[in-house]
Fold:
Amino acid sequence: MAEKTLNVFEIVQGQIKEACDILGMEPAVYEILKQPQRFMEVAIPVNMDDGSVKVFPGFRSQHNDAIGPTKGGLRFHPDVYADEVKALSMWMTFKCACIGLPYGGGKGAIKVDPRQLSKGELERLSRGWIREMAQIIGPEKDIPAPDVYTNAQIMAWMVDEFAKIRQYNAFGLMTGKPIIIGGSLGRNTATARGCVFTIREAAKKLGIDLSKATVAIQGYGNAGSFAAELISAYGSKVVAVNDTKGGAYNPDGIDPVAIAKYKEKTRSVVGFPGTKNITSDELLTLDVDILIPAAFENQITSANAARVKAKIIGEAANGPTTPEADAVLYKNGLLVLPDILASAGGVTVSYYEWVQNNYGYYWSEEEVNSRLEASMVKAFEAIYDMHKQKNVPMRQAAYMVAIKRVYEAMKVRGWLD
Ligand code: GLU
Structure:
């Protein structure tokens, strides 16, 4: 199969298999982990503003709940497909496990381009997804959150719909909610913050001075834009960013806040004053110290991996690097901070949000951020140690740490007897 058409489901199966083999796991471990425990596909009818009815496919995948309720985002995207949702739910299991969160992995999606919908249509679609999924989700069962093209408003409609069905406010059903209905301070910057913490730790190990480092960021949504802001606070210079419409490059540095405001107005970073256009391929292969892929799957591939020059790659997106590319990057001595570690800040603060909902007691932003920092640094250290000890890439090390934990839970629960 050509790498371009490589199914992400097969990619994650390969990653699990490899780690299980190195760990010498009994075959049943891979047999259980190679697919989700439950996958649900629904058809959601929506009354459109023009009087017609449109039906949208919706998905929820619950990969493994050995450690705790399944957890993971919900994305709205026109190209999303069932196997992708399955793969994303599998990555969530290992993301939660490598941080040490008491969750398994889940993921959901609706196949839609939300930019084509009115606010009313979007609300009816969001509520429809909850009505179809209500039987399999819940605060102790499976807890969705924002992902690509979903946000706090959508979480609010969903929590509200669930409250109508259950006849009580179950705010712990969703995370990434607006603050007024139980959202956590610090949640919206958490993915980026977690990623930048891991980059900071990696930079220390490699002797890279962040205050002199240059950075390129692929994708300027929630993760990419906050990552730009946060890494700039360490004195690093963001020289290139992009989005689906194109890129912006300025070797003297780009003001991350000003370009975010510009994007809000024009809907793209392209044409930001003082920058030159840059293609995605040029951005990924720029001569920078740090590269942050913060967009989609399968971006660093065998077509460009050999030309990637960054010393540290901090994966804020899920699955941005293909296995072939991974091998090339490792051979070339680049340090890849894998998605299941580097993008785990979001779900970590989602966990804090759920804890606060369960407690009914809310923390300050400083408290959230300092707990996040401690969690990310601890996870980074454990994975870095495994990487050094076993002489394996960081990704494999992260899977090994995670799979050991999932194995332990499955074993003690009697799933492997
Ligand atoms: N969608 C985010 C992720 O892929 C966050 C998931 C969550 O907070 O549950 O990690």
Notes: The mean pLDDT is 97. The pocket of glutamic acid is lined by residues 71-73, 95, 145, 147, 175, 318, 343, 346-347, 350 (CB under 6 Å).
